[in-house]
Design goal:
The complex is a heterodimer of chains A (about 475) and B (about 625). With about 475 residues, chain A is of the alpha/beta class. Chain A has three domains: about 10-70, Electron transport complex subunit B, putative Fe-S cluster (3-methyladenine DNA Glycosylase II, Chain A, domain 3), CATH 1.10.15; about 75-340, TIM Barrel; about 350-470, Rossmann fold. Chain A is about 40% helix and about 15% strand. Chain A has 17 helices and 17 strands. Chain A has helices spanning about 15-20, 35-40, 60-70, 115-130, 155-165, 180-190, 205-215, 225-240, 255-270, 295-310, 325-340, 370-385, 400-405, 410-420, 425, 440-450, 465-470, and strands at about 75-80, 85-90, 105-110, 130-135, 135-140, 145, 170-175, 195-200, 215-220, 245, 280-285, 315-320, 350-355, 365-370, 390-395, 430-435, 450-455. Chain A has an eight-stranded parallel β-sheet with strand order 10-9-8-7-6-3-12-11. In chain A, strands 13-15-14-16-17 form a five-stranded mixed β-sheet, with helices on both faces. In chain A, helix 8 links the parallel strand 9 (about 215-220) and strand 10. Chain A is globular. The mean pLDDT of chain A is about 95. Chain B is an alpha+beta fold. In chain B, helix 11 packs across helix 16 (about 590-600). Classes of the chains: A alpha/beta (about 475), B alpha+beta (about 625). At the A-B interface, helix 1, helix 2 and helix 13 of A face strand 30 and helix 16 of B.
């Protein structure tokens, strides 16, 4: 598609997509009609390939045009296969608030082939088993970068086999020597590893190798953007499309320059639809270890903050060396944070909140975890100076009214929450106060929980008066 | 044996016998009196005021304390929903609780193309000769060469036993042909159709000559479902129970049959002379009319069929020949129903390549955007302020309602009243006019709050809360009720809420499809406010954004016009089904953009980019 015709995801209208669909309104995609499907596609909630009629040969031209229309300006590159396959790139916008960021940058930990086998095994296991529970999600590390330090192809193959025997994490094979890469690929080509890297010195041989095996490849030209572009252009002419760019990661006084380069490339891709810039960016904070610094701790520290900065500014994949929890955990949590969808409503954590000094006879209230709802209810309860328990239920961040209509707040969900937060240990009575806007759930809730339901006010400002006048409820 | 007590309601002089302990509101419904009970009897709205003249009454709950002043209670005022009567009693229903001569929409604009109804008449021939004669006479229709229509045994017997001429009425709805009625004599010169707009508040109808397309006469009545619950949500809740469904269906049916009675009487025909019926209503109304359980409509993921419902007059209880198929325009989503499709047909936007928008502001707001290539819609809760409910001096648009307001630089107020009488209250269009005027005169600040240092704005003298601000529109000596007509701070809060919802809904729909207000060439306004509301006021107050390149059209009662179109043209029915099938729908309830736009719309008029002329940024 011509550059002039490219539109950013914010400019693409569902109508643009709709006009290219078969418009049979057959509902095979699961949506009520084609307009509904088109809307979901533009929102990033559906892919164009979910439309069965579109995949028929008579719509080939439309499918091609749709793919071009919807293609992100930064190509999505797949590495590895199976359950642990990772996708890097696939970015639509510069700023998160313009849409959302997709495909959080995977973090690869290096395995140098000059390490002893037992140490390698221990290191692989540590990466494989790294896991941290955070707001109901499990944060993990994502890949392994096997580096040929010995320059020995046999050793390289040995280490790769050792690693693949221990885990199925995607791999990055690191060497500038095509012979070594060839050897490595001979034992793991089916795992679709990322090859690091093509340079101006090896591009012909490495390029052929990569094409033969159909693997994605890093194009590396540290500190030379023009060279990077030339290499990309050449490889494109050869028919190589799955590329990752390495403009060079520098630290210390050169951090600013690094960030600037990453930003320039990303902007060119997203704002100007520059095709030579439209590829994922590789950040290598591991490079601090090549510097003059002798202290391990300082290196770890520099690597850690460089990684965070690169996550913020456009790195789509990172290679790191440090395995310290304090160095890695911030990256995972930071990455998680900025890759949450800003279009989803802000929510608070589910759980029990205590107000004042409640005892076994105090009221138990429930509400949704939409931030606005929660803070309003919290403020009203505090203003009314009531001693009570408030159970915040995970309704996907929706307000009470929306959650009831959208079936994110139901009698079953309330029952599950009471169990999860052990509400029956909080108080001796079995009266539950539900929001007035969830009144229609009262009968079913009583059946599912075995508690008696007291319907509260529709507006939380009435909680104070309600509790004062109607608590404790008179048993009939 | 009577344990029962008698209640007399004045001034309508209606008496009804009930059991002791009956809630007064129920007694009023029993007596068939049209009465304000907006919240359906739950004690929220405070509008069901009656005056106890005699009889023993007890009260439930503390609701009375909030809605009536001590002075009023001394005079015998109480809320009918919370009063139980135990002995023979007399009640006066005061003027503000009565409903009379509401201003309903009987205008239809829009033209129909070729007249091609779904029903036709042919003379019946009994053919006693020919090879099959041994089996008895066969029935043929003079001039008819289509598929043999389905006939019942009863119909066959009638034909065989008839002496003189008989005319058969054949309907082509549903793809098959069916004999729906037999008329004595040669009646092929007449063909009658009834179109009904099944509104949430009002049911309007017309009788049309299906040969010429002429509208013979029209009528309307209030939807009796109102006394069961004003809002759709209330009615859905009632409809979840079987008894509730039966009540709701009977109420709607009663009003529909009343409209049929009126138009047939005015035209001098019988209801058995009706040959076709089309009904247009929103999804909830249509389902309740058909007796379908409305519970799924409470949920966002409800699957709504886009196929038009076709009922028979006999099965739904409509006063017309039993076999007559009643065509109900199809729905798109739980809140965008046949009436929105009808608006589309009336506007013709689905045949025009220019982009149009239909904005229907009534009890709920429905918005349809698009052109002949694509159509999308959304809905929002635009009431109750636009209907006059929830406002201190609010009332429905009827005789006695202020519907226009002017305020000069000295804050002097001039009002126009429907029916040219002394005002009783203020209706939707009047409220918008008042808000626009108050904003213009500096009585309201940018967020819609009353400024207390402006003449006419004072602290609550008219009841409840003395710390509440209010603006005096008409002093008591000039009103029918003998009370000041005011706009209070709380009224303005409700109104800003309604206005923000509508503006946000329009903005979100435009935004989602990357359409700018300047891209729109036609704006069609429908519904009560759409037909009578002043467009300038709606824009300056910020209910609607500016549409700088658009022509405005008022399509009046688009719902009724669409039903009329479907009577005259079977093509219109196919178009209706096709439009419903392909129209996209955005549900705002779970939409993040809507929340943001709503907050931004809580000022007068709203975001700068929606009002470029007002803010001087319009580049033509």
């Amino acid at each position: 598609m011509k550059k002039e015709n490219r539109k950013s995801i914010r400019e693409i209208s569902p109508i643009d997509v709709y006009k290219l669909l078969p418009r049979t309104n057959c509902a095979e995609c699961g949506e009520p009609n084609c307009m509904a499907f088109a809307t979901k596609v533009v929102n990033g909630e559906e892919v164009i390939e979910s439309c069965p009629p579109l995949l028929e040969s008579k719509y080939e031209k439309d499918l091609k045009m749709l793919r071009e229309l919807l293609a992100p300006p930064v190509r999505a590159v797949s590495i590895g296969n199976g359950d642990r396959r990772i996708v890097v790139g696939g970015k639509h916008v510069l700023y998160r608030h313009e849409f959302t960021y997709q495909n959080p940058p995977p973090i690869a930990i290096d395995i140098p082939d000059d390490m002893e086998d037992e140490l390698i095994a221990a290191r692989v296991k540590k990466v494989r088993d790294f896991s941290y529970s955070y707001i109901g999600r499990t944060l993990t590390l994502d890949a392994l970068a096997i580096r040929s330090v010995t320059q020995n192809p046999d050793r390289f193959m040995e280490v790769i086999s050792l690693v693949t025997g221990l885990c199925d994490l995607p791999l990055i094979l690191c060497s500038f020597n095509p012979e070594i890469i060839r050897a490595g690929l001979s034992v793991c080509s089916d795992k679709k590893p990322l090859i690091f890297a093509i340079t101006k010195d090896n591009w012909r041989e490495m390029g052929e190798l990569v094409q033969d095996h159909g693997c994605p490849v890093v194009v590396s030209a540290p500190g030379d953007l023009n060279l990077l572009r030339t290499l990309v252009k050449t490889l494109l002419e050869w028919g190589i499309e799955d590329m990752v760019l390495d403009p060079g990661t520098y630290h210390s006084e050169q951090i600013g320059h690094t960030i600037h380069q990453f930003t320039a490339i990303r902007k060119a891709a997203v704002k100007n639809f520059d095709s030579l810039s439209g590829y994922p960016l590789l950040g290598t904070p591991i490079s601090v270890w090549n510097g003059q610094e002798l202290s391990d701790d300082i290196n770890r520290w520099q690597e850690a903050y460089l990684a965070s900065m690169l996550i913020t500014r456009y790195a789509d994949l990172l290679v790191m060396h440090s395995l310290e929890g304090w160095a890695l955990l911030p990256q995972l949590i930071w990455r998680f944070g900025i890759y949450t969808d800003p279009r989803r409503p802000v929510s608070v954590d589910a759980g029990v909140r205590t107000f004042g000094d409640p005892d076994k006879n105090s009221p138990v209230l429930v509400t949704s975890n939409y931030a606005l709802t929660f803070f309003t209810v919290e403020s009203d309860i505090k203003a009314a100076k009531i001693d009570c328990y408030l159970i915040v239920i995970d309704t996907g961040g929706l307000s009470v009214e929306a959650a009831v209509a959208g079936r994110y707040l139901t009698a079953s969900i309330i029952a599950d929450s009471l169990k999860e937060w052990k509400a029956d240990t909080l108080v001796n009575h079995r009266f539950l106060v539900i929001p007035g806007l969830a009144a229609r759930l009262s009968g079913e809730t009583e059946e599912e929980t075995g508690w008696r339901v007291v319907v509260g006010p529709r507006d939380s400002s009435g909680i104070g008066q309600m509790i004062r006048e109607r608590w404790p409820p008179v048993d009939e | 044996m009577s344990d029962s007590i008698s209640i007399l309601f004045q001034p309508m002089n209606r008496m009804v016998a009930v059991n002791p302990g009956t809630v007064v509101l129920d007694a009023i419904r029993e007596a068939g009196i049209q009465f304000e009970a907006i919240c359906g009897g739950k004690g929220f709205c405070g509008k069901c005021r009656v005056i106890r003249v005699s009889g023993e009454v007890t009260f439930e709950g503390t609701v009375c304390a909030n809605s009536l002043t001590p002075d009023e209670r001394r005079k015998g005022y109480c809320l009918a929903c919370h009063a139980k009567v135990w002995t023979d009693a007399v009640f006066t229903i005061p003027i503000e609780s009565r409903i009379d001569t509401p201003q309903v929409l009987l205008d239809i604009t829009g033209t129909i193309g070729k007249i091609h109804p779904s029903v036709q008449k042919f003379l019946v021939e009994k053919v006693a000769t020919g090879p099959m004669a041994v089996l008895g006479p066969s029935v043929r229709f003079t001039g008819y060469s289509g598929i043999r229509p389905v006939m019942t045994e009863e119909q066959r017997t009638l034909v065989n036993n008839s002496a003189g001429l008989v005319t058969g009425v054949i309907s082509f709805t549903e793809g098959t042909s069916r004999l729906i009625a037999l008329e004595e004599g040669d009646t092929t010169g007449t063909l009658f159709g009834v179109a009904i707009d099944l509104g949430t508040t009002t049911i309007a109808g017309l009788l049309t000559d299906l040969i010429t397309g002429e509208v013979i006469c029209r009528a309307s009545t209030l939807n009796r479902q109102i006394t069961l619950g004003e809002e759709l949500v209330t009615r859905i809740a009632i409809g979840r129970r079987e008894e509730g469904r039966v009540e709701l269906k009977a109420a709607a049916l009663g009003s529909v049959n009343e409209v049929i009675r009126k138009v047939t009487r005015d035209a001098g025909i019988s209801d058995q002379d009706i040959n076709d019926i089309c009904i247009s209503g929103n999804t909830v109304m249509t389902w309740l009319f058909a007796g379908i359980d409305p519970t799924p409509l409470e949920y966002v993921d409800a699957e709504i069929s886009h196929v038009p419902l076709i009922l028979t007059a006999g099965s739904c209880g409509v006063n017309a020949p039993r076999e007559l198929p009643v065509f109900c325009l199809p729905a798109v989503s739980r809140f965008v129903g046949g009436d929105a499709i009808a608006n589309v047909l009336t506007s013709g936007m689905h045949k025009n390549e220019e982009i149009s928008i239909i904005i229907d502001l009534g009890t709920n707001g429905e918005i349809v955007l698009g052109n002949r290539d694509w159509l999308v819609s959304t809905s929002c809760a635009s009431g109750p302020a636009f209907e006059g409910a929830g406002m201190r001096s609010g009332m429905r648009a009827m005789k006695g309602a202020i519907d226009a307001v002017k305020i000069d630089n000295d804050c002097h107020v001039t009002v126009r009243v429907i029916g040219d009488t002394k005002p009783k209250g203020i209706c939707g269009s009047g409220i918008i006019a008042a808000a626009a005027a108050m904003a213009g005169a500096g009585i309201l600040d940018f967020s819609g709050k009353l400024n207390d240092d402006v003449p006419g704005v004072r602290y609550g003298e008219s009841g409840k809360d003395e710390s509440e601000l209010e603006f005096l529109l008409v002093p008591s000596q000039n009103t029918v009720t003998g009370k000041d007509i005011v706009i209070t701070g709380e009224d303005m809060a409700y109104l800003m809420d309604s206005k923000a919802a509508v503006l946000a809904a329009i903005t979100v729909l435009l935004h989602k499809f990357r359409v700018r207000p300047g891209d729109i060439r036609h704006v069609f306004l429908a519904g009560a406010l759409g037909s009578f509301g002043d467009i300038e006021h709606l824009t300056s107050f910020g209910v609607l954004p500016e549409f700088p390149r658009a022509d405005f059209h008022r399509i009046g009662n688009g719902s009724l016009a669409g039903a009329y179109a479907c009577l005259l043209s079977s093509d219109a029915r196919i178009e209706a089904a096709e439009v419903a099938k392909r129209m996209g729908y955005i549900d705002l309830l779970v939409d993040n953009d809507f929340i943001e736009e709503y907050w931004a719309a809580l000022r007068i008029p709203g975001k700068e980019e929606l009002f470029p002329k007002r803010f001087g940024t319009w580049k033509g």
